[in-house]
């Protein structure tokens, strides 16, 4: 009963209007241990998954063992909707970062419910638009920015407001190896740049937390590297809002 209530609550946070109520009866609650592969790239399944508890990671691996981390997902986030829409095999793998609980919804049920109303279709279109925008930004960074600037961008993306300090924090913080996999470099380069930032009092590293103590300074480094006067934090917030279907 508790997980069913959690399912409905999470679905209402993630889905618009009555879509949550229409999809909840189709959902199956699944539990997973940390480190387990929830979806594998190339798999033929089309189900959509809603994270109820814990965190998962979206990754792409090459045939030679190289890994690119695209993003982390937390409670209230969805994954798997691309295969539900086009029926093609999975384009990414999903790994549980710790013990987690997800709700699995059959792809046809998700697609039919989302497209049954103009509101649902617009919400889905906004989610896909946000994904395209986010990936476009990442491709631009990988091809035009040096490693330090790419890391600065990723740190701002991963951080959230910290009311206690007035800065921003990443908690829990990825390992240096994980940060390297996010920005296309090696662990040593990440370690070196984090030390450089810490030496200039832009951030502070704790055991499993990174505190960005001088947000304006880090944002300035990003703007200078990109040659763009836009606030990188505002851009990130706008894209997150589009993922939730709350803005155009």
Gyration radius, in Å: 19 Å
Q: Numbering strands along the chain, what is their spatial order in the largest sheet?
A: 1-8-3-6
Described by the principal axes of the CA atoms, the overall outline is: globular
Find the CATH topology of the largest domain.
Answer: Jelly Rolls
Which CATH class of the largest domain applies here?
Mainly Beta
Low-pLDDT runs: 244-248
User: What is the H level of CATH, i.e. the homologous superfamily of the largest domain?
Assistant: Jelly Rolls
What's the end-to-end separation, in Å?
36 Å
Overall mean pLDDT: 88
Could you tell me the strand content as a percent range? 15-25%
CATH architecture of the largest domain: Sandwich
Give the structural class.
Answer: alpha+beta
- Main sheet record: 4 strands, antiparallel
Number of H/I helices: 10
Layout: helices, strands, pairs:
Elements lengths: L1 H13 L4 H5 L4 E5 L4 E3 L8 E6 L2 E6 L5 E7 L4 E2 L1 H6 L6 E4 L3 E6 L1 H8 L3 H27 L2 H12 L1 E2 L6 E3 L5 H8 L3 H13 L3 E3 L4 E3 L2 H12 L5 H12 L5
Antiparallel strand pairs: 1-8, 2-7, 3-6, 3-8, 4-5, 4-7, 9-10, 10-12, 11-12
What would you say about this model in short?
The protein is an alpha+beta fold and 248 residues long. It has two domains: 119 residues, Jelly Rolls (Sandwich), CATH 2.60.120.10; 102 residues, Arc Repressor Mutant, subunit A, CATH 1.10.10.
């Amino acid at each position: 009963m508790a997980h069913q209530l959690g399912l409905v609550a999470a679905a209402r946070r993630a889905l618009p209007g009555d879509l949550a109520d229409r999809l909840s009866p189709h959902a199956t609650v699944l539990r997973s241990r940390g480190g387990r592969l929830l979806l594998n790239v190339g798999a033929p399944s089309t189900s959509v998954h809603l994270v109820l508890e814990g965190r998962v990671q979206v990754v792409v691996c090459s045939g030679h063992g190289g890994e690119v981390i695209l993003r982390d997902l937390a409670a209230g986030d969805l994954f798997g909707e691309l295969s539900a829409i086009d029926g093609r095999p999975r384009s990414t793998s999903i790994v549980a970062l710790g013990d987690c609980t997800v709700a699995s919804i059959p792809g046809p049920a998700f697609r039919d419910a989302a497209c049954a109303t103009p509101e649902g279709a617009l919400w889905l279109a906004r989610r896909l638009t946000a994904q395209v925008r986010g990936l476009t930004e990442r491709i631009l960074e990988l091809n035009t920015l040096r490693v330090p600037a790419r890391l600065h961008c990723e740190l701002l993306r991963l951080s959230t407001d910290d009311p206690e300090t007035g800065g921003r924090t990443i908690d829990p913080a990825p390992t240096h190896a994980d940060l390297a996999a996010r920005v296309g470099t090696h662990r040593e380069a990440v370690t070196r740049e984090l030390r450089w930032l810490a030496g200039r009092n832009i951030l502070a590293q704790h055991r499993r937390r990174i505190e960005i103590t001088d947000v304006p300074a880090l944002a300035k480094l990003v703007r200078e590297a990109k040659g763009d006067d836009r606030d990188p934090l505002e851009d990130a917030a706008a894209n997150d809002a589009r993922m939730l279907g709350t803005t155009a």
